[in-house]
Amino acid sequence: MNALFEFYSTLLTEKQMNYIELYYADDYSLAEIADEYDVSRQAVYDNIKRTEKILENYERKLHLYSNYVVRKEIIEKIKGKLMKEYPEETEIFEWVQTIQEIEE
Q1: Cα torsion for 79, 80, 86, 90, to the nearest 10°?
Q2: Rounded to whole angstroms, how far apart are CA atoms 61 and 45?
Q3: Residue of 16, 49, 59, 63 with fewest CB within 10 Å of its CB?
Q4: Cβ contacts of residue 7 below 8 Å, gap of 6+?
């Protein structure tokens, strides 16, 4: 959920972002979030569950996170092959390294 949040957080409302960040990143309990926002624990729970579904739907439609994972794996394979079979190709290795830095 944290990874999905990183990719899609800007598509959420401020309240959704706050609740998810407090719950997952800051490890707040539902009761602590409810106290912070002066709402019921059930309201926080419902909001978090609804936001989780929203994040999952974004990923199902846009594939930003899964594509990122695939690109990262491919870049690692390319780097490994370059280092092993073409160690003299430092310029190509640097290009791949630059691509990897952009991805992160």
Answers
A1: 30
A2: 24
A3: 49
A4: 58, 59, 64, 65, 68
